[in-house]
Amino acid sequence: MIPREVFAETLLGFLAPVRAYLEDPQVSEIMINGPGKVYIERRGRIELTSARFNNQEAVLCALRNAAQFVGKPLDAQNPLLEARLPDGSRLQAAIAPIAPEGPCVSIRRFLKHALSLDALMAGGALTEPAAATLETLVRGRLNILIGGGTGSGKTSLLNVLTGFIPEAERTLVLEDSKEIVVQHPHVVYLEARTQTTDGEAPVSIRDLFRASLRMRPDRVVIGEIRGGEALDIVQAMVSGHGGCLSTLHATYPRDTLTRLETMALMSDVELPLTALRAQIASGVNVIVQVARTSDGARHITHITEVLELSPTGRYELRDLFARTYRGTDASGKQRSELLPSGHLPNFLPALHSLGLDLPRAVYLARDQLAAMQ
Fold first, then answer.
1. Which residues of the chain carry a pLDDT beneath 70?
2. pTM
3. Which CATH number belongs to the domain containing residue 179 in this structure?
4. How far is it, in rounded angstroms, from Cα 148 to Cα 77?
5. Which residues span the domain enclosing 293?
6. Both 41 and 154 in a single domain?
C-alpha cells in the first residue's frame, strides 16, 4: 500500500500548475475551466491567472489521482467527483460526458486557521453589538440557521459561532467534507461518505445525524443541510435538542425557511405541510443571513427571529439586526452598517433565566424606536 504522504505529494505534483495558489493564504477558491483557463478568487475578487495545464489529459490525470486518493470512482459512468485534497481543501469536478468542453474543477481552499471574530468585525461583516448578540444566542442554546449564497461566508461564520459554545459542552460536528474547526477540547467529527471503489456502503448526513443523537451530544453542528435530513434536524430541534447550528443555501431569511421546508419534504416521511411548517417555526429560533456584495465583501445582512406561525400558516419573522446601505465610496466599496432594529425578541425572558442578556445597543435602539412612534 502506498504511504499517504507519498500519495499526497504525487497528487500535488499533478496539480503543479495551481500549487502556488493552493499554498497562498489569500486565495479562497481555484476554478479550472479546462486546461487553458484557470481562475482564482482572492480577497473576494475573481481573476484570470496565467496558470495552464498542458492539455485535457493533464487535468484528468490530476482528477484520477484525487479520486484514487479518496477511494472514489471517476469515469464516464461516474463523471462527478467530490473529494478532499491532502490539506483538507474541497474539490468538486465534472468530466465528460457531462462536461463536453473539458474537465471543470473547483477547489475551495481549506483555511488552516479559522476566521476570527475580530477579523469579521475589522472587515465590516458585523458590528460589536451584533457579535455580542450572536454570542448570547449561541450560549443561550438557541437553534440557529445560517443562510446565504455560494461563497457568501456561511461556513466561515459557522466556525466563528462554534467558538461561543461553552468548552464544557460535548459537540458533534457532521459534514460532507471537513471544513469546520471547533476550538474546544471535547468535540467529535463525523464525515459522510459516498459509494467508494471498494464497494463500501455510503453514509449520509442523515445517517450521521441519527447516530449523533445517540452519542450524548450537548450540541450538534451540521456543516450544511442539503436533503431529507432536514426533517430529522427540525424534529430534533422541536423535541428538545437545543443549540443546533447549521447552514443552507438561501438568499433571504424567509427563503431560508422555505428552502428548509422543501428539503424536509424530500424525506421519506409524509407529513402534512401545515404540521411541517409549525415544527419549523417552533424549532428554528434564529436565522443569520450572509451575503457577498458587488465589491466582493462578505457581510451579515440580517439577524432574524423566527416567530410563531401565523393563523394563515405563513412564516412570521422579525429582524433583530438588519444591514443599512449608504451607497459606495470613491473606491467603489459599498458603505453599510449592521444595526439593531429596536425590536426585542420573544425569547428574551428565556435568556434572562440563564443569566444572559443582549447588549446595551439593542435596548438603546428599542428606546429610539419607541420615541419615534
1. 1-3, 111-115, 195-199, 331-332
2. 0.85
3. 3.40.50.300
4. 32
5. 117-372
6. no
